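ok so i was messing around last nite and threw this chain in just to see what happens. nothing serious, just curious
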Amino acid sequence: MLNARKATRITPHVASPTAVPTTRIPVSSTSSAHFPTSRNPALLPRNFKKAPIEIDRQVGHWTRTTDGREIFDASGGAAVSNFGPGEIPRIKAAADQASARYGPYQCGLSYDTEPVQQLADALVRSTDGIMESVAFYGSGSDAVEAGFKLLLQYWQDVGQPERQIFVAREQSYHGTTLASLSLGSYWSRRDPFEDLLMDVHHVPACSPYRGKKEGQSDKDYVKHLQDQLRRKFEELGHGKVAGFVCEPIVGAALGCVPALPGYLKAMQEVCDDFDVPLMLDEIMCGWGRCGTLHAWQDEGVIPDVQLIGKGFAGGHEQISAMLIGRRRGIVDTIRDTSIIFNHGHTFQNPAKCCAAALETMKMVQEYLPNVRAMGELLMKRLKARLSAHVNVGDIRGKGLFVGIEFVQDELSKTAFDPQDAISAKIHEMGLTHAFQIHVYPGSGSANPHGKEGDHIILAPPFDINEDEVNLIVDRVGALVDHFFKEQNLAIQQS
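result:
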């Protein structure tokens, strides 16, 4: 094992985390009244009903708050802090060194730096040359936007400007810009802007817990999904589709649902039949999170465009990447036709961020065996602890990327009313003094329109050990038990 650290704080002056409680935690403690109002009215909040918790400091895998809580990060924040939210000296040192040498900002229109070139070369090598070119941006949404425009320009340059239609999947999430929001189908994020979004077509996701019929084999289910994609391309017309976009393992919108074996390959076969580029969004599920550096590497597919973000620099810097595949000749086409890729950002190819991402890449590769081993252990122990719970419908995932879906009862798989906000309330209860654990909430996993279904995501740091796996299982198990005990009691009394 790479890390024999015990599951306690590494700073001796801080008290040990609160033990898992044995008393009931009232559901009312998760209401918005539990949280203080913002002490800075000048700051626009994400949610006007509750203020975020103020952090005192972060050390290792723990976040200490100003009111004395010590919260274990069981989700990498939003699957970002892949070595914990605290400072990682070697990543910080790499970023600081690059900043000291090249300055805090370099104009990408005019300048290049060694860290940017080194990271690009390392990324291409990590794909065994399947990908050939890389560009670096800020957020994951930025990378998706770049991939979207890259394919549109490519089709213009090859003389097929009529290829303007994108096909993506239901119950997916690809970002918050108008183009990336159009690709996704996450209802709660799309709804306010629906009239402004582009006309992207969607096919069903690969979601065996909800999508497979009784008695249907995995192979037959994959064939059914393949046929649906083929029919969609035929419906839209040959020579009309610019690209097909999907997440190899769906994160926020479905709660860590891996593609079944053979699914991605089946989708690529259809794409190849219709000469449609395959764009894989690995912003949440990639970069080692599922046990391989790139999520597609053990799936037998070759992406034309790949997107990376979130934990790309371990949360130390804001950076994402668009990787372009070699087999279609996209880079050669744009170079020989347009000369420029007509998409640029003020903050593009930053030296400091690339240096941090390169050091993170080295750490990720060192810890891949631990991701696989601890991921298997986490899944095994979570299932042993929660599979029999009447309100736990499914526990799924890959590596250190695990989702738990909640239902009214496990036999009918009936989802909760969206107004109940079950996953959000579980997330909030987890942050209380009683539990002190951060899990990532999600909704929309129960049906294609994405309005029903509750899940939480566990995406803990890559260097966790067995003690910390046990800590996560104990605290999440107690959290789920107490929440639904109070939830069901409240229903009975209403």
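not much to say yet. DSSP finds 13 helices and 17 strands in the chain.
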